Amino acid sequence: MPDTKKTPAPGTPIDLAPFGRTRYFYGSDPRKMRFVDALRADDAYLPSDPDGSGRRHIGLVWEDPRDIYSIAVTYEGEMPDPQDVEVQYWRRNWPFRFRDEGRGAGRGWIGRDDHYRGEWITALSDVVVEGNRVIYNFYHLDITEIPDVRALEGAEDFNAEFRTALKFRLLFPEGAQPKVKRIEAYTKGEWKTGEVDIFGVGDADVDAYNGYVTSVERRGEALHVEYLYIPAPADDFPHRRTVITVRDPHHPFSFCASDVEEHQVEAYPAGPCSRKEPGKPLYIADYGILVRPGGDTRDPQTIIEQLTKSGKPSIYDRVFDEPEQTFERAMREIPRLRAPFQHPPIGRYCPLGCEGSRQRFALRYNGNFFVDKRANKAMGKDTKDLLWPGAAMYFRFGSGDFPNWREYENACEQRWSSDGAPIITSTWVDRDIEYTQTVFAAYLREDMGRYFEKRGDEDIVLLVRFEIRNVAHDDRRAHLWLKWEPHESVEYSNSILSAVGRLARTEQLDSDELACRADRPDVPQSFNWIVRPYEKPLVRARIDLGKGCAFTQPYSDSREGPAGIPTAFHYETDLVGGERDVVTFVFPYPTLTSDEDIQLLGSVDYNTKLKDVRDFWTAFVRSGMKLSIPDKMIEDFFRFVPVHVAITATKDPRSGEYVLPAATFHYGACGNEAIIQIRQLDYRGMHAQAEKYLDGLLFVQGANLLDGNFQTKEGSFAGASLYDGKPLDASFAYNTDHGFILWMLSEHYFLTRDKEWLRRVAPNIVAGCDFIIRERQATKIEENGKRVPEYGLLPAGHLEDNDEWRYWFAVNAHAYLGIKWASESLAEIEHPEAERLAKEAQEYLNDILAAVERARIESPVVTLPDNTSIPHIPIRTDIRGPEWGWFREGAYGPLHLVDGHVLEPNDQRVTWIMKYLEDLVYPTRDLGRPIDLEKYWFSQAGITIQANLLNNGVAYVRRDEPKHAVRALFNDFAASIYPDVLVFTEHPVVQLSRGVGPYYKTPDECGFLNTLRACLVIEEDDTLFLAKAAPVSWFRVGETVAVENAATWFGPVSYSIAVGETCLKANVKPPRRNPPAKLAMRLRRADGKQITAVSVNGQPVEFDSQREIVWLDPKLDDIVLTADS
Question: How far is the first Cα of the chain from the last one, in angstroms, to the nearest whole number?
Fold first, then answer.
């Protein structure tokens, strides 16, 4: 903090240099950078050691960026030519993209800067010399300084006359060694005076961030504080504010000066709507503290009464009074996803393949399909037989003449097979002809076989059968077309459709080329289509015709398409009223050229393959936990998701290991999202599959240096891909990966109690723990007898999608849980390192809690709609308020401290987090999604943009707040689901109904199911809780909820609850492997009837009617429960 003896006068320019540190910056490698405090001699700073070019520097650094308009330097003695001194700032992403330019919640990914990665940019300046003081006034930012025109024109700070940076430096000319007496760094505005009276605190120390405390004195019941502060700018980012911290011994807290001071609200454009807003008092109800603005003479009780009376209940509180959310209401009030708008022009699609296969097709929402080398993440030899006309091929089926390709919404009805097999049917009616298309993938040469037995590089085919039916009473001619892009010249003979050449355009520039390219219909085309013949025909499909005839012909549905070369397959059949015809296509994924391959393709039998595929996948679906619930769409989704995961996982033929990526198409491996999937499989009792995928993560352990200021990679876990038996780079480079993978290794043991497996992987677990222990030593730094804010945390690094290197609480929470659970699991096999790791976990927990508490104290309180204020828990160290964007503040915010068992669910800090999320994150424009709070606060809020990265639903279950949990569960499902084929979008980013992201987004699907599992079955220390947050709407008269063979930390559990007019009947088979100490079940009725008596196996037992809980004997083999109403 700045020396109060040097407090500036009110009304003077704002110099932010005293809030930073004067340092040298050595090194260009982010992991080897050194920040060294500048040396002083004779009351002046000395410049740094010379760099490779002989130039020295001196700089300023802050923990968070500052907006600097000018830099002034005062020299002691001889000074260099001011024109030869470069004022430079550290830049990677600034100027940050204008928030409102990003579509919807796309603003959540706006980049930020960090101290480690970037480059030095020389600020163009007007140089003013005043004796031995030189002032560098920055010109507005332009292309001569940062040549990225797109970044400049799309910037939040357009034509900025300041530079926003974490670091500035003065780079002196070669050979110069000036002594610097003072550096000043000015932001816009002048210091203003402010004052408050604080009631409810003792004699506390008070300090300021970006400001000066000028007076603290006791005035009766109040602590009177006077200060200088920065007037609030229009864009009120944390680094642009003055924060006053009141270090009360019982309830330390901070507030933003601009929140309680009168401030000008500017209209845009400036005009009569500009106004002054009076300062507002802050009432921190949980502390009993009131901050009263200076000049407000009302007594504290009057202020509190007026504040609370004029406020509106917070969303968090309103949920308690609202009838519990239902599936029907959520589906009714949340707009349905619209398939064509998901990454147009492709729209929503479903990948189709075989277990672990490296080859996949993608069926679009309209019955068309594509293959794509890039989207399917082809590596090495994967492409050796893919003789395609481009990196991707887009196949379309048309109906009618003129053909309808159905590139529009609701063009057909599509559904997944009800037995869970990945067999998709699309149906549409076109000009009295009904087309029913059935599509699935199978192996070309092999049958489906057993799970895990394939290499992963076997060739597959897509089988497509059309049943064509005349729905009219009189005769009709039906037409079925097939064409694809990039264009090829095609031939059809002996049931084989082959490509004989690739089409190319030859440019002829003898006409008005510019006009032609503007698509002027009155200007002749200036190019021709030609065929570039292949050396031999390339087989694209085998087609088994029905009663009609087929041929190839030219076809183009655009003015510039080829019109004279046969590029389309056309089938015609005449049907009398009600008559059917069948056409079957077999598309090989690899390109077939030999007679043997063509003969092989001809041997593929549709019905045989259909039975083989159905038998394989239905057996797979039946292999895990069973679920029966009244909301059948969710039940079916539960059954289908493991199939999505199995198609998504990719097997490396050489090593036999699996990579479980973040999506089937496009996204590569990332450890945290792999774990979300593995956890769901383990919860279902699909332990062999979970173990296979964990083995793939163990295989790449230590292969990659985590993306951050880490110095070693031994023992590190990352979601790295692999190919040909060799680990590849972890493309996503999330620091969250390490902790997620580490704790999942222990949870897999807790769910299986497989001690032999644990002994096998124990060295990996210990190495993963030692990586954390080793790396966090670098932050154990004390300065002037005080710990740095990040003391004991992992080095600054990459959180998740946002890649700036910072000290993130989510990263550390999951890493801590990894060590904690490792010590507990290893203790069960009497591993010699268990005790050491337990001690390390406790020390780590203490350091995280200290860092969180310091950040909480120094972050200003936030105000809820009810006009009460609550403390704000930041997502990292070194920030005074919210971070930017929903992804940081919502998806990976402080709630991960609960996931990581750093904070207990019912800790008061978690209540603050929940209230903050519900009211100030989820339904807001900057940190969530703006919604109509009057009409849709209940259904369209309650979740973050990518809902399944944040376990708020699970946290609510653990807090025993079932209404909140059920609301989060159903809102998540309704916002994410495509009801026809039961797949999730990654996130409706632009707005509800507009999905974004590739398919299958299996981590998000599994994340939802993990929340569902918590509602139905959840472990709490030595207690197993059943139906703790099962929706009350599932307990209508006549309904049954049943869970069969759910894996738990205590062994498999099964139960059912049936609702009758006058009683509930439940059957429970408690876990027998290592039974819990306590077993509880929540009993609820949708009709509101009170439960009056409960009996177990014919004997009466106590029922907690307030909590709706009955405690059961976990030692019983079978429990038959009756609850009378």
Answer: 65
349: which strand partners? 364
CB 168 within 8 A of CB 60: yes
> What does the pLDDT look like over 618-643, one tens digit per residue?
999 999 999 999 999 999 999 999 99
User: Whole-number mean pLDDT of the chain?
Assistant: 95
State phi, psi for 606 to the nearest 5 degrees.
-60, -50
Q: Is the peptide bond before 562 cis (omega within 30 degrees of 0)?
A: no
Which residues, 6 or more positions from 710, have their beta carbon under 8 angstroms from its beta carbon?
Answer: 31, 716, 775, 794, 795, 797
Whether 688 is in a domain gets the answer no
CA distance 167 to 115: 7
Max intra-chain CA distance, the chain: 105
**Residues 224, 163 within the same domain:** no
> Domain holding 599: CATH number?
2.70.98
Listed as own residue / partner, the contacts of 546-553 with beta carbons closer than 8 Å and 24 or more positions apart are: 546/468, 546/573, 546/581, 546/582, 546/583, 547/573, 547/581, 548/478, 548/572, 548/573, 548/574, 548/581, 548/583, 549/573, 550/492, 551/492, 552/490, 552/491, 552/492, 552/497
Burial class (CB in 10 A: 0-12, 13-18, 19+), 374: exposed
Contacts of residue 847, Cβ cutoff 8 Å, sequence gap at least 6: 776, 791, 792, 793
| Listed residue (222, 214, 210, 221) closest to 254, CA to CA | 210
Q: Which residues of 485-508 are buried (b: 16+ CB within 10 A; e: fewer)?
A: bebbbbebeebbbbbebbbeeeee
Residues 382-409, mean pLDDT to the nearest whole number: 98
Residues 283 and 208 both lie in one domain: yes
Element (H, E) at 974: helix 962-976
393 and 453 belong to one structural domain: yes
Report the alpha-carbon distance of residue 185 to residue 169 in Å, rounded: 11
Which two structure tokens, joined as six digits, stand for 1026?
């059943």
Of 601, 621, 641, which marks where a domain is finished? 621
| Interacting residues of 784 by C-beta distance below 8 A, sequence separation 6+ | none
Asked if the model's pLDDT at residue 421 lies above 90, the reply is yes
Helix (H, G, I), strand (E, B) or coil at 134: strand
pLDDT in tens, 525-546: 557 899 999 999 999 999 999 9
Q: Could you give the residue ranges of the DSSP H alpha helices within 474-558?
A: 513-517
Who contacts 805 (Cβ-Cβ below 8 Å, separation ≥6)? 30, 114, 115, 116, 117, 707, 708, 709, 796, 797, 798
Residue scoring higher pLDDT (127 or 234): 127
Bridge partner list, 119: 91
- Quick check: is 561 in a domain? yes
Q: Is residue 836 part of a domain?
A: no
Beta strands in 805-871 (DSSP E): 805-806, 862-863, 869-870
Single residue among 259, 290, 310 that ends a domain in this structure: 310
Q: Is residue 660 part of a domain?
A: no
**Structural domain boundaries enclosing 195:** 191-310
Residue (of 953, 988, 791, 965) closest to 878 by Cα position: 791
Q: Residue 127 in 3-state DSSP?
A: strand
- Positive or negative, the CA dihedral 270, 273, 279, 284 is negative
Hey, which residues does 72 pair with through a beta bridge? 135, 184
**Beta-ladder partners of 539:** 498, 592
Is 293:261 a contact under the CB 8 Å cutoff? yes
Model confidence over 700-722: pLDDT tens digits?
Answer: 999 989 999 999 999 999 988 89
- Distance between CA atoms of residues 1030 and 324, nearest Å: 11
Nearest to 635 by CA among 623, 645, 625: 625
CA proximity to 795, closest of 32, 143, 167: 32
Cβ neighbours of residue 1109 closer than 8 Å, sequence gap 6 or more: 1080, 1081, 1082, 1083, 1103
- 282-284: strand order across its sheet: 212-219, 222-229, 192-199, 289-293, 282-284
Question: For the chain, what is the domain count?
Answer: 4
